[in-house]
Design goal:
Layout: H1 9-22, E1 38-39, E2 84-86, E3 96-101, E4 110-115, E5 123-129, E6 134-137, E7 140-144, E8 154-159, E9 164-169, E10 176-183, E11 190-196, E12 204-209, E13 212-218, E14 235-237, E15 243-248, E16 256-261, E17 264-269, E18 283-287, E19 294-298, E20 301-306, E21 310-315, E22 321-325, E23 331-337, E24 343-349, E25 357-359, E26 364-369, E27 374-383, E28 386-396, E29 401-404, E30 407-414, E31 417-418
Parallel strand pairs: 1-25
Antiparallel strand pairs: 2-5, 3-4, 3-30, 4-5, 6-7, 7-8, 8-9, 10-11, 11-12, 12-13, 14-15, 15-16, 16-17, 18-19, 19-20, 20-21, 22-23, 22-31, 23-24, 24-25, 26-27, 27-28, 28-29
């Protein structure tokens, strides 16, 4: 069994949407939206953007001698060849995104890291010829090893732009599997899951630090992942590293959402013995990038949780998907399913309050903030077998304009946050 890292949420979502455009299958939507919202009027003059020249990347990783990350260390897998090359500098607080551009070879997994310190002229700093499991911050990513059995459960924290690898391996006793949840922003903790591969039992949430390994939660029996249109990240730390959510989602009726502060559970949403009723399960969680504020969906409502205030209903009758929050924490965007099977995207001003506002000039889907002002999403239109994904766009929240985007797919963002990326 390979390391079950959810390496590329956007790639999974886009693959599903592409499938819908060509063959019959289930859509990526959630249940109906129950609140009446008003539509904004975006600026009709939308200029098409042009690609920025890709800088010539350097080649070869830098050997890691003194590491800033040293948990569960292992040797570099035999025969490993780096698939990351970088050129230029990255500010430690620069907003960044790992994306696939129009210029990527057709059918390839080639992606780039773009630095949005200047949102109008983002620069391409790194090239990735493989998946990124996690974008920890502007200077660190997690990648998994591939593909020999001896490297099962192996991954690396990579310092960028130096391209310095720090290899680690999740514990895997005989007969047991392991799955990475996330590496903490402080590079001092690994959250991961274990289970009995044969029976799906003994499923546990682990936190590993320099002090050792600790089991912090026990999950329900589940034989593998069935998959669902509601699948999202299985966990994420706050940017401060103070809290971690883990969202176990083997099947919707068995979803579990827990929030940990250190090794203590401070929120636990566990299904009743008969399982969650349809649509009642917790799903689509996302942290604010600027505070210990968690949003998630449950019972066809959106809830907000804070350490001080606990869980409170935030949006009634909003069955959202793909929630995302801007890098400065001031805006929240999400999509909802329409009666025709397509989606609309809504924007909430978290800084000043007010009702959600529908944005875009037609059906829109899978939004994700790239920085504090630019929201990426795709148009959506009907096809023979269900909704299809079409043109990628950038919505500018400063003036409500829409313009074409050079980005085909988003894989990860920071410090902006998303339930998927």
């Amino acid at each position: 069994m390979k390391l079950q890292v959810r390496m590329n949420r956007e790639a999974m979502m886009m693959a599903l949407l592409a499938l819908l455009a060509t063959a019959c299958g289930s859509n990526t939507g959630t249940a109906s939206h129950g609140s009446p919202f008003t539509s904004s009027t975006p600026n009709p003059s939308a200029a098409s953007s042009t690609p920025n020249p890709t800088e010539s990347p350097s080649t070869g990783p830098v050997s890691s001698i003194e590491t800033s990350f040293s948990l569960l260390p292992r040797q570099q897998p035999a025969g490993f060849v780096s698939k990351i090359s970088c050129s230029g500098s990255i500010g430690v607080s620069d907003p960044v995104a790992v994306v696939q551009l129009h210029t990527a070879p057709a059918g390839s997994a080639e992606a780039v890291l773009r630095d949005y310190a200047n949102a109008l002229t983002p620069k391409t700093v790194c090239l990735f010829k493989g998946g990124v499991a996690q974008l920890i911050d502007a200077r660190h990513v997690v990648v998994s090893a591939c593909c020999d059995p001896e490297s099962a459960y192996a991954a690396a924290v990579v310092d960028i732009p130096e391209v310095r690898y720090h290899w680690f391996q999740l514990p895997h006793p005989p007969g047991f599997g392991a799955e990475l949840v996330a590496v903490s922003p402080g590079l001092d903790e690994i959250a991961w899951l274990s289970n009995d591969d044969t029976t799906g039992t003994n499923r546990k949430v682990h936190l590993t630090t320099k002090s050792g390994d600790q089991v912090v939660a026990t999950l329900r029996t589940a034989l593998g992942r069935c998959g669902s249109p509601d699948d999202s990240k299985n966990g994420a730390y706050t940017h401060s590293g103070s809290h971690l959510y883990v969202l176990d989602q083997p099947v919707p009726s068995s979803n579990i959402l827990i929030v940990l502060q250190g090794n203590q559970q401070v929120l636990s949403l566990v299904p009743p013995s008969a399982g969650w009723p349809q649509g009642a399960q917790p799903a689509m969680a996302v942290w604010s990038p600027t505070s210990q504020l968690l949003f998630y969906r449950q019972q066809a409502d959106v809830w907000r949780w804070t350490p001080a205030g606990g869980a409170q209903r935030y949006l009634s009758g909003v069955n959202w998907s793909s929630p995302t929050i801007s890098a400065d924490g001031s805006h929240l965007a999400y999509s909802v399913l329409r009666s025709d099977g397509l989606h609309d995207v809504y924007l909430v001003d978290l800084a000043h309050g007010g009702s959600p506002t529908r944005i875009g000039k037609g059906a829109r889907t899978v939004p994700v903030f790239l920085n504090s002002t630019q929201l990426w999403y795709k148009t959506e239109g009907p096809s023979i077998c269900g909704p299809g994904s079409n043109q990628p766009l950038i919505y500018d929240i400063t003036d409500g304009s829409e313009s074409g985007s050079v980005i085909d797919q988003v894989q990860a963002v920071w410090p902006a946050t998303s339930s998927h990326f």
